[in-house]
Amino acid sequence: MSQSMAFRRHVPGLAILLNLLLPAMARAADPVVQVEPLVTREAILAFIELLGMDREQRGVVEMTFSLYEADASALAQRTVEAQRAAGADRLDEARAGRALLDPAEVRRLRVAVKETERGAWASADALFEGLLSDIEILIDPTLAARSAQGFALLRRNAMLAPRRLASWDSGYAGEGMDLVALVAEARSAGAELAAADENALTAILGPYAQSLDAHLRQTWTEDREGRYQLAVARIERATDRVREEELEAIERWRAPFELNRSTAAAIGAVAQQAGGPAAAIAWQRRVDRAAFPWLYAGARPERQVAWIRASTVGNEVKSRAEQALVTYQAASDGVRQEAISLLVRARVEGRFIMGSEVDLAALPDRTAQDLYRELLQNSGRRAKLDDQAAAEIAAMLEDRIRAQMNADLAASAFGRRR
Fold first, then answer.
1. Dihedral over alpha carbons 111, 117, 122, 125 (to 10 degrees)
2. Where are the domains of the chain?
3. Whole-number percent of the chain with pLDDT over 70
4. Residues 293-323: pLDDT tens digits?
5. Do 9 and 70 contact (CB within 8 A), yes or no?
């Protein structure tokens, strides 16, 4: 059993960890603050389920994980404190208008704050390996046959989950995607793979998991360092370094993306066989949403109709709103599919990562510049569809109800940004 278990103390784990990370994110003025690798409770529960543990073994493993959560929370707290010492509070004061910093100083402080995450890696690695070692000691020998698959699941989750923290950004293209988890969701009652042949899915997912696990273990250290270096280069606005790091990031992205794409297509064929074209389309849309969640998140017409469903407006208005939503989704789906194609082509053909900090003048050639312009045009078409559908739905409501809906949606949007 790892030495750290002797002094670990129990505190609520992942919730505290996230509560610590999110304020730090705001203070540092950077998109993502990570303590990684990080094992989630969902992954531990999946591990327990996979191994078929009895109640006693389950309790011991969950207690061990709670101790790990406490240590991870303590590491997050130390990282937050290190960020403050590195200048996060000064950045916060500048953003609030209470201090005046020149741009060079802002960049220097942001890099210093970012460096504190890197300083936590060794401790995070030790906690992760210690957790796996502790659990391995605790596992009953009768479960050994399935333990290798279970530990692979934990490693895969721990290495992919931190990458999904950036999934809100338009520079994300499925770097944290795991088709094993997506299939589990799609196998639920009423979902597109509920009636699919289990043996056929297992035959596809087994080799997929092995290939993805091997790739992650081989590239984990390089990928984590590369993501850090790219973030720093962007902060410092070092155009040549950004270009170099983006090219390396694209190369790291390419193999798992192709693995995910070919495997998703094979699973789509199983869905087609079990549930027809509708099931295959539903599966592909699930994959698209996982690979490009920012592209699908929070469209105003969808939020409006969700509000209307929960309101006391009449059934006729609700029915009209639902129909307007169906029409909007059909139109926007095609534009989103075009966006996905362009985003992939930007990486493969244009050799750049689309995101919020792209500089048209810095793109390497005409191909990349043309793709960037096409992406901007696509974004404009998506915005126009959103605005038109939102206006149509809002017009269905009386003035007083529309005002209340707008106020509620504005408040919820503000809450998400916070």
1. -140
2. 1-155, 296-417
3. 90
4. 999 887 899 999 999 999 999 999 999 999 9
5. yes
